[in-house]
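hey so i finally got around to running the thing on that chain from the lab meeting. sorry it took forever, my laptop kept dying and i had to restart like 3 times. anyway pasting the input first so we r on the same page abt which one it is
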Amino acid sequence: MDWLFAPFEVAFVQRALWGGLLVSCVCALAGTWVVVRGMAFLGDAMAHGMLPGVAVAALLGGNLMLGAAVSCTAMAAGVSVLSRGKRFAPDTAIGLLFVGMLAAGVIIVSRSQSFAVDLTGFLFGDVLAVRAVDLWYLVAALGISLVVAVLGHRAFVALTFDPRKAHTLGLHPKLAHAALVGLVALAIVASFHVVGTLLVFGLLIAPPAAAVFWSNRVPVVMAIAALIGGLSTVGGLVISWHAGTAAGATIAAVAVGSFFLSAIVSALRERVGRVGVLALAAVPLVGCGAGEAPVVEEAVPHGFVAGAEEMSEAQKRVVVADATGAVRVIDLLTEEVTPIGPESVRAQPDPSSSPSTAPSPSGGDRRVPTVGAVGDGRFAYLSAGASVQIVDSGAWTVDHGDHRHYYRAPSRDVGAVAGDTATSEPADASPGTSGGSGVVGAYSDAAVATVVLGSGATIVFDRAELDGGIARTQRRVDGIAVPYAERLVVADSSGRVEVRGRDGAAGQVQSTPCPQPKGQAVTRRGVVFGCADGALVVAQRDDAFVAEKVPYPAPTAERATAFTHRPGSTTLTAIAGRDAVWTLDIRKRNWTRTPIAEPIAVNTAGEGSALLVLTRDGVLHGIDPATGTETARTPLLGGPVEGDPVIRVDSERAYINDSRKRVVHEIAYNDNLRVARTFSLDIAPSLMVETGL
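ok and heres what got predicted. didnt touch it at all, straight out
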């Protein structure tokens, strides 16, 4: 039976199970009356009538469930008012409101270019993304539904079978109708986040309709409907887990299947009697106890770390730090801000250097300024003087190409190791980088993590030790070292590029050199090094590694010294002096120089996406990379920029730190650079990295 229980060992499936069970109970209370009274069209109309409220809430950055509630309440009120007229049947009023609300929602959505992901979740739901707070909403909805169902039971029964008698008995049929419509609205609003509007109709109708075959009493029908809905939730989650199908849709499909199964069994019962039905049901069970049950070994998910929780979606977080070393971790899903420290620099002795190079422990009031920050997808590495502090954001993604695993754990300070001894920034340092005073890049795979220093050296860590909370330098490499394809690709100060083993063993030297290497990136098409004469791309082809130079279009002194890009993207950006930015397309093997005055930070979501450029005056620009024309602009920082802000980009949003206002801006870059959210902090976020990707 391991195949049955294995899915529910994962935390997010457990939440999905509880969410589905609560939704089944809510829908059973309302859906029974929908089936008994023939209100199926009303339920379908109200499910789709939520779109305007959800759309407005999403665009304003508000609570989607609240927006759905407002829209559904307006729909219910409109149906109650228009249904009182005698010129046309109630279904005409429902149809008009259905089309009107749906049209309004589509119009609102069409005005936003970045609404596709939210709209998908609205239509189809995401039961595996149910959060603990959503469960409490469902508990509250179930409590309200129970109160309404119990208090209004007598009036609902009279309204269903004889409205005139209900009026004679003083049961207020109009008020009862409004309450019943409100009960349906509550069930739909509470359920759409789990299975979506296109599928909520299945849980609202199918279990009660199936239950009608087994009883004629309304309370019993409600109980059976809740049981069928709960079994549909369990069955749908198990099937979805093993078959890799959409969980919400699978639950709805199982619920609909339960109706047809009940109809078939009911028909057989009428033909052969109950004894015959039981005999037929017992046939498949004969011999089930024969043989030994196969032993199924419990599989540990790829990338799992003790104490972590596997989730259904990327757990994106932002790590920020101020100049004093105070660190905050922002959870972009829950909007919670967790303070880390401020900690003193606790450097471990570096076995590759003399003990005098490692700073001695110091108290919290003796911290040196933090001047640089980089991240490898989970850990943030902060350079402070001659040390590198490591912060575990507690969010990461393990990418296996055809599928991904998402994890979350508590954020924590891991410790510090000795970094560069230099503390001053060279004059040729590019904006947004720490120059020669600390960290300039961080990369990791399943075995090792590397932190590239401004001096051109690299610290190599054992990734398992970092996962376990141990900050200790494994070794140092003289050159820029990046993990790739179970190797370390190293570019040293002489321009020599070598593919070494993870243990540092000598490997294949590339025939194409990289003079004066500065700046690096990892993409799906290989490792990129910034060279004096262009970029060098080192990639694995079959069992060999090849290096290909992408030269600048013309000799230039405005070389790229620090790359920015969306994780995994093959389109890189960089500052090109004081009057332009570079775009490097790895796939097409070409550079594009886009003129713009005083760029301070640049990034892009990938090929075909706009360049995001923040200029010294605090204005964020959206630029078409093909034509160089400005497509959008937002006065973001409200004046001349303080410090060196950065632009971090993921598949949906961009994030920009504002030290002056002590905030982090979330930008919907596909929606005319709209500011989607603003996170206020108690520190000045002069440094920032995004994790969980």
